[in-house]
Amino acid sequence: MRYVVGYGPRQRGVDGVNVAATLARSSGATLDLVSVLPSDAPTFQRYSPDQAFNAELDEQAREWLRDGLSRVPDDVTADSVVQRADSITQGLLDAATDSDRGEAALIVVGTYHRVRSGRFGLGSLADALLHASPVPVALAPAQYQAQPGVSRITCAVGLRPGNEALFDNAVRLAGEWRVPLRLMSLVALDEDATSDGSDWVRAAEEHAAALVDSAAQRLPVECSVSSIIGRGESLEDAVEGVEFADSEVALVGSSRLAAPRRLFLGRSATKILRALPVPLIVWPRD
């Protein structure tokens, strides 16, 4: 199993490495740190300026990757790859779907760094991946520090059908990583101005209880299963009312608008992302 980690010279590259290392310590995955350069400029002259420029770019990317590898903990195995592509997004997607190396289990990237510590800011790279990737994408909050491993998985579950793949994979990961699973339902009062939210809370509690029973039957005894209902005036408020440990990760599903095996970050997931203080994995639809 391998994770593709987008790496560059900015802090978000370091954040991505730290999240990938934390996940790898639980999963046993190896890391491929990838720096993407523009496609080779066409030239037919051995000593042309194009060739010299490409060679300089290549050496710069390898220097970045040496820095990235130095930040990987000793107990995590990592390699480096210089990928040529028309865009950074395409380069990471190509690296993740490389038939010779096998499809990656995750693409891991940092997010826009000009936000307060522990929060997400979607830049153009993360946004593009979240609307195109065929594999799950893990996002790192700003200034994320590597943890000894994942201590718990929190999976966002809703009342609407269509997220069975997310739930199944959350259960699978909890079993493989031997960590507790928490199922999180969110109730935003601003989505129903005619109600005080009590009916929605009751429905969410009943739905979560049924999922807890289902997950508990499929997981070993040491992997506890629980549920929590976040409630607030908005989805952001509901998320902020839920406590998270620094060493846990959250899972959300792709929008129902997504094509099969493609990500598409929907409106609700975007709101959840803005308020989360922990790494987020976005899972494609089947």
Automatic annotation (TrEMBL):
CDD domains: USP-like (cd00293). Residues 15-140, 151-282 form the UspA domain. Pfam families: Usp. PANTHER family: STRESS RESPONSE PROTEIN NHAX, UNIVERSAL STRESS PROTEIN UP12. Belongs to the universal stress protein A family. This is Universal stress protein family protein. It comes from Mycolicibacterium obuense.
